[in-house]
Design goal:
With about 550 residues, this protein is of the alpha/beta class. The protein has 2 domains: about 325 residues, Purple Acid Phosphatase, chain A, domain 2 (4-Layer Sandwich); about 230 residues, 5'-nucleotidase,  domain 2. The protein has 14 helices and 32 strands. The strands form 9 sheets. The protein has a 6-stranded mixed beta sheet with strand order 4-3-2-1-15-16, with helices on one face. Strands 6-7-11-12-14-13 form a 6-stranded mixed beta sheet. A 5-stranded mixed beta sheet has the order 23-18-29-20-30. Helix 4 packs antiparallel against helix 9 and helix 11 crosses helix 14. The longest helix is centred in the middle third of the chain and has 17 residues. The protein is elongated, with a radius of gyration of 26 Å.
């Protein structure tokens, strides 16, 4: 039957000015015997941005008026990325998705960000069935993912459709590796290795299983992406090594792909689509009674009133929740000098020490770095609310750990200190500021401002090299014994910071972009700080942070 199918890729494009007309035309084109699969990916807590969940609910309701055969699926990374996820550990997102009426979802890497116990709770709470065929558990304590199925088969009229979930093998390093371990041994795996062929073999075995059960259509609900950096685990890599699939709906790379095709192992075209991120589009897959399959992206400005009211109710509850006390501090933590001018962009501060320590500790690294421009607010003595923490780190940058040589670390410190002056203020105002000035953990060094900066920048103000004597002197690194020793320029160290600096070249830092990542985008910045205070400092910032700890000397 598969060889008799006609596969048509319909690329649906619309200008903003005719969004409503376009969406309406898609609804009008639906026939009573069409199978319609609506899909989302990488919503990342954007509950009412763009189309919003209320718009999605409205479009689903409109589709159901045309055909009873409507399914709604999510391709992962729904529950993390904004305050609503942080304050509820993802539960508010599941509540909203239940209200909208999702049928199936796959596990993206960020579904794991709250830990296995919480993920198990989210899965149990969800009205949809979570799917992933390539997760294996080999531990003894008991898997937290027993409720996750590899696939589900649904009958729509006379047609049987198999939905198969696929999670990226990058999940372990793009969430928190410790979550996948017991007694320091990895017990969860995602069919990684063998240049992507292990993943292909696992997925192929699942495809063969559902085909043996007589399904007519096979749809992968995947979280793999098409980013070159994700090779050999991209959806395109997978499709090239399997056969028997009709459609791959995808997430992870935030790509916007209305509809294209990729040839499978036998040379047959497989439809491929991804909606982008944050509900910028609704994906629409249509399987007609005569076997035509099309995908496209829809924008829909109408919002379901009941869903909108539910979302607003949730928002009201977490807006209260952000004022919940999550920790406390025994000392004032500041970005400023006692005179009131901003210091965090040119000198060490006690809050900078705390934030850098959080990155080093949670990143399991030798060195922690955080740009002063990413530390935006002070913390007063007493209770700390979630809103206070988010005010400190409002950008949503994500923890990464990278391997770097001592020479690269020295370059990094020179880049950090290139604007630093011998004085920190003049006429009551800060001088020598640089948003990329680094607060550090696991390091001590001196900035000799009598030496002109040797840093050379390219036309885009990105780091291009060092020419001339160093102004960074006497660099020491904290070793495993808790003692400081000289930086070895040839030695490889681990450095924890965030994706903005390590991967994206933020503040002009280019020296780490091609380096090996140990952790890749695991935990959002405000959660890094919360977790450090609550789990490593006992919930109270201690007196040792009263003053800057002498890590950076400026002369």
């Amino acid at each position: 039957m598969k060889n008799m199918r006609k596969i048509l890729t319909t690329i649906l494009l619309a200008l903003v000015a005719c969004t409503m007309l376009f969406a309406q035309s898609q609804l009008e084109a639906m026939k009573p015997d069409d199978i319609v699969v609506l899909y989302t990916n990488d919503v990342h807590c954007a509950i009412d941005e763009n189309i919003g969940y209320a718009g999605l609910a409205a479009f689903k309701a409109a589709a159901l008026e045309k055909t009873p055969y409507v399914a709604l699926v999510d391709c992962g990374d729904a529950v993390q990325g904004a305050v609503i996820g942080t304050v509820s550990n993802g539960e508010f997102l599941v509540d909203i998705m239940n209200k909208v009426g999702y049928d199936f979802g796959t596990l993206g890497n960020h579904e794991f960000d709250y830990g296995m116990a919480q993920l198990s709770k989210l899965i149990d709470k969800a009205g949809m069935q979570y799917l992933s065929c390539n997760i294996e558990y080999t531990g003894k304590a008991g898997s937290a993912l027993t409720a996750v199925k590899p696939y589900e088969i649904v009958s729509y009229g006379l047609a049987k459709v198999a939905f198969i979930g696929v999670s990226t093998p990058e999940t372990i390093t793009k969430s928190t590796p410790a979550f996948f371990q017991e007694n320091d041994q990895f017990v969860y795996s995602f069919a990684a290795g063998n240049d992507g062929l292990n993943l292909a073999a696992k997925v192929q075995a699942t495809i063969d299983e559902v085909l043996a059960k007589g399904v007519d259509y096979v749809i992968l609900v995947a979280h793999l992406g098409d980013d070159p950096a994700s090779a050999p685990y991209r959806s395109t890599d997978l499709i090239a090594n399997i056969c028997g699939v009709d459609v791959v709906l995808d997430g992870h790379s935030h790509s916007t792909v209305s509809g294209t095709y990729v040839l499978d192992k036998e040379g047959h075209p497989v439809l491929y689509s991804s909606t982008g991120t944050k509900l910028a589009n609704i994906g629409q897959l249509v399987i007609s009674a005569d076997g035509y399959i099309s995908t496209g992206l829809v924008k829909y400005p109408v919002r379901d009133e009941a869903a909108s009211a539910f979302v607003n109710q949730i928002k009201a509850s977490y807006e209260t929740a952000v004022n919940k006390v999550v920790a406390s501090t025994s000392v004032k933590l500041t970005t400023k000098a006692p005179e009131g001018y901003r210091l965090v962009r040119s000198r060490e501060t006690n809050l900078g020490d705390l934030c850098a320590d959080a990155y080093r500790t949670l990143g399991g690294a030798d060195i922690g770095l955080i740009n002063g421009g990413g530390i935006r607010a002070d913390l007063k003595v007493g209770d700390i609310t979630l809103a206070n923490i988010i005010a400190v780190h409002p950008y949503g940058n994500v923890l990464c750990t990278v391997k770097a040589t001592g020479a690269e670390i020295l370059d990094c410190l020179e880049m950090s200190a290139r604007n630093t002056q011998g004085i920190a203020s003049a006429n009551g105002n800060a001088v020598g500021e640089n948003g990329g000035f680094l607060q550090v953990s696991g390091l001590k060094f001196t900035i000799d401002t009598s030496v002109p900066t040797p840093v050379k920048l390219d036309a885009n103000l990105m780091f291009a090299g060092i020419e001339g004597p160093h102004r960074i002197k006497d660099v020491l690194v904290l070793n495993a014994k808790g003692e400081y020793e000289p930086l070895d320029l040839e030695k490889t160290y681990t450095v924890a910071s965030h994706n903005y600096m390590i991967k994206q070249g933020g503040d002009g830092y280019t020296m780490f972009k091609d380096n090996e990542l140990v952790l890749d985008e695991t935990m959002i910045d405000n959660q890094v700080l919360i977790t450090y205070i609550t789990e490593y400092l006992g919930g109270v910032v201690p007196a040792e942070y009263t003053e800057p700890q002498g890590r950076i000397t400026v002369k």
